[in-house]
UniProtKB/TrEMBL annotation:
Leader peptide range in chain numbering: none
Name under which the protein is recorded: AEC family transporter
UniProt record similarity statement: Belongs to the auxin efflux carrier (TC 2.A.69) family.
Spans through the membrane: 6-29, 41-61, 67-88, 100-117, 129-151, 163-181, 193-216, 228-248, 260-277, 284-306
One Pfam family this sequence matches: Mem_trans
Cross-referenced InterPro entries: Mem_transp_PIN-like, Na+/solute_symporter_sf
Main localization of the protein described in the UniProt heading: membrane
Topology with respect to the bilayer: Multi-pass membrane protein
Keyword annotations: Cell membrane, Membrane, Transmembrane, Transmembrane helix, Transport
Localization of this protein: Cell membrane
Organism name: Actomonas aquatica
Length: 314
């Protein structure tokens, strides 16, 4: 089993790339105007290329359990987090109009892409990424339906439209390609271009995230809330990891999906609630307090949960 410091070594490069993005923003090398363009490039081109390359021809996806269960688990764990945070936040005095909905969404959504992908690769190899990305379809569904409805109260029909995206199209194309043997027929030069684009997705995405978060670092006194930050860390990095690891141990799922759940259990809050809170009339500062607090504490907590999970789940 990897030691704590070996697991920490897998995480440090992820946070280092975020720090590089932040440093580039402070230096003026990445302007605020570039954030939207860079994120569109990542989400619409590079991340779909990563998904397509990881799913097409992936032997793990020949197991039907790795097609049916991963999206269901992704959706279910997100919903558990959102409604669990909503109930606990309400019980502890949060209220609508004063951060309850944004807190519930931000604390309930774990980082399901940019941090776990390099961790899965380091722990279990490149072939493990395919199941993770199928799992993430369920996460996306939860974010753009349950999550958006909780934050804004928009209709289910309106929120579902967000699921028609580059990553989902890439997954469907790759899954369909597996059925017809596209992996064998695709010219090597095409596969090389797709692989090269996919390799750029995570580093550029993390750098862009670091640049985006820097806008909030300019007022450091607002980044910590005595109400929001400790509760978010307690839920996201203590309560939910325990729940997810129990589910990973008892559910009738494949070993590949157990590995995904083990890594996702340890994750801090995802950054997407900040963007959604901005767009749908939530409270972005509350989301920032959740994301930055859980990410900072996660640098210490993630290796601990991974080490415990590796020894207990398997």
């Amino acid at each position: 089993m990897p030691s704590y410091f070996e697991l920490l070594a897998l995480i440090v490069p992820v946070f280092a790339l975020i720090a590089i993005g932040s440093g580039a923003r402070w230096a003026g090398w990445i302007s605020p105007d570039a954030d939207s363009s860079l994120m569109k490039l990542v989400v619409n081109v590079l991340y779909p290329a990563l998904i397509f390359d990881a799913v097409l021809g992936n032997a793990a996806l020949s197991d039907h359990r790795n097609v049916f269960w991963p999206p269901l688990v992704g959706f279910g764990t997100m919903v558990i987090g959102i409604f669990g945070s909503l109930a606990i936040g309400r019980a502890l005095g949060f209220s609508k109009g004063h951060g309850l909905r944004t807190f519930a969404f931000a604390a309930g959504i774990y980082n399901y892409g940019y941090i776990p992908i390099p961790l899965m690769t380091g722990l279990f190899g490149q072939e493990s990424i395919g199941v993770l990305l199928v799992h993430n379809v369920g996460c996306e569904a939860a974010v753009w339906t349950v999550g958006v409805i909780v934050v804004s109260g928009v209709s289910l029909r309106e929120s579902w439209r967000k699921l028609v995206s580059g990553p989902v199209v890439a997954l469907l194309l790759a899954a369909g390609g597996n059925l017809v043997g596209l992996d064998e027929a695709m010219p090597e030069v095409v596969r090389t271009v797709i692989k090269s684009a996919g390799v750029c997705a995570i580093p550029l995405g993390l750098i862009t995230i670091g640049a985006t978060l820097t806008e909030y670092l300019r007022k450091p006194s607002q980044l910590f809330s005595a109400r929001v930050t400790p509760l978010a860390c307690g839920l996201r990095l203590l309560v939910y990891p325990a729940v997810f690891l129990v589910l990973a141990k008892v559910l009738p799922i494949s070993p590949e999906l157990k590995r995904v759940m083990l890594v996702q259990a340890a994750m801090p809050a995802g950054i997407v609630p900040i963007l959604i809170a901005k767009h749908y009339g939530g409270q972005p500062l509350t989301a920032v307090q959740v994301v930055l607090g859980t990410t900072a504490v996660g640098l210490v907590a993630i290796p601990l949960w991974l080490r415990f999970g590796l020894g207990w789940v398997f």
